[in-house]
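ok trying this again, last paste got cut off
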Amino acid sequence: MDILFLLIPLSVVLVLLILAALWWAVYRGQFESMDQEAERILHTD
């Protein structure tokens, strides 16, 4: 039972870190032009 007092707060912190990383990626424009990046590898330079 004591381990739950450690694991539950750690899992909440992990979820918050994942959400912060996702928010940062969306805010910085990482998901703006996904189609363009997918087609970029098909074109030769």
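PB: full thing came through this time. The first helix runs from residue 2 to 27.
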